[in-house]
Design brief:
elongated; 0% helix; mainly beta
Length: 152
């Protein structure tokens, strides 16, 4: 289990060496936060491939990944309900701390197609609730990660 910059738990399903300098990773993300002023439900998955400079899980790497997410985010004034799909690229560095422990830093950018519905859950008295449908393509930060890993 690791935590990314949004403080959401993520679980790498697997990450194994594929060939001499390649590895594959699949991660799932779930973010069910509910407070008085903010409510989020984000469910996502990322599948990626990394190319290591020397050997898997040690040193510099670059990677490509694809992502899929469904979200429902809102506060008292606005709500968003939708999904996103995209691809991205990242680069990072991994340090071997001990025989089975390592620490990695990774950052990346991605291109996402987003489709959502927005509305005001509490309109002023006498007004209707208007649903607005949005479709857009966004260039956004895809990964910003610091992780400790135990390798079996």
């Amino acid at each position: 289990m690791r935590w990314d910059w949004q403080r959401e738990p993520s679980m790498p399903v697997w990450m194994w060496p594929y060939r001499e300098k390649w590895s594959v990773e699949a991660s799932a993300y779930w973010n069910p936060i509910s407070t008085e002023s903010l409510r989020t439900k984000v469910l996502g998955a990322v599948v990626g491939v990394r190319r290591w400079r020397f050997e898997p899980h040690v040193g510099f790497f670059w990677g490509v990944h694809s992502a899929l997410a469904q979200y429902r985010v809102g506060n008292r004034n606005k709500r968003y309900n939708g999904w996103a799909v995209g691809v991205g690229a990242s680069a990072g560095y991994s340090w071997m701390l001990h025989r089975r422990w390592n620490f990695s830093l990774e950052g990346g950018i991605g291109l996402y197609y987003m489709n959502d519905t927005r509305w005001n859950p509490a309109p002023p008295p006498g007004e209707d609730v208007f649903l607005r449908h949005y479709r857009r393509i966004a260039l956004a930060p895809a990964k910003l990660e610091a992780s400790f890993s135990y390798m079996f």
